[in-house]
Amino acid sequence: MAPTRVLILGHSFIHRLFSFLVAHFGRDFLENFNLGDDLIFKWHGIGGRTVAKTRQLDLGVVRSFAPDIVILQLGTNDLTALSAVETGSAIEDLVRLLYDSYSVKRICVCQTIYRENAPLFNNKANTLSKYLRVVLEPIPYACYWKHRGFWNSKSRFLHRDDVHLNNLGHFKLYRSLRGAILGCWRALSEAS
Asked: Which of 6, 25, 92, 144 is the most buried (most CB within 10 A)?
């Protein structure tokens, strides 16, 4: 049986997490997320990516890699210019496109991570989270993933810029994404 192909797609958080993991654990670690040889991974994270730019510039990566699972970490950059509903609608459209046009079997949309000292942004992120939970729930090939443990902790997970993650935040995001991947992988196995 062929390995399951997983694409981790998103904005600077994905690029920065990849760089962090390479620096601290090496490239071999990233090839299977420490989950075994039944999974093959591709990372594609570009700083400043919005949903529209992803549709315009990154679908070639989806086509060439032909993933079974896509983990999406998008929406942060969209919320600076668009409403939560516009952003959520664009993400929902992208999820449907990935399934309908690229034969992705499972798409996981990850929660937008809050910013420090940014109540307006965080309110939009909350609204986006609620919107995505509602619109993705009836879609059998999609799921919404909440990054647990970032918000009610005494530890600081954000970099000094109050936007990106520090080393502890990167490790926390890695563990959360690993959980999302395992959840999607199980769902695919159960559907087979």
From this structure: 6
Q: What is the pTM of this model?
A: 0.92
| Spatial distance between the Cα atoms of 159 and 11, rounded to a whole number of angstroms | 16
State the Cα–Cα distance between residues 31 and 146, nearest whole angstrom.
24
Q: Which pLDDT tens digit goes with each residue over 64-83?
A: 999 999 999 999 999 999 99
Split at pLDDT 50, 70, 90, the class of 106 is very high
19-30 pLDDT, tens per residue? 888 888 777 666
In sequence order, the β-bridge partners of residue 40 are: 5
Q: Which residues contact 152 (CB under 8 A, 6 or more apart)?
A: none
- Specify the residue for token string 């516009």: 86
Residues 188, 108: Cα–Cα separation, whole Å: 12
The Cα–Cα gap between 152 and 43 comes to 29
Give CA–CA dist 79/3, Å, rounded.
Answer: 35
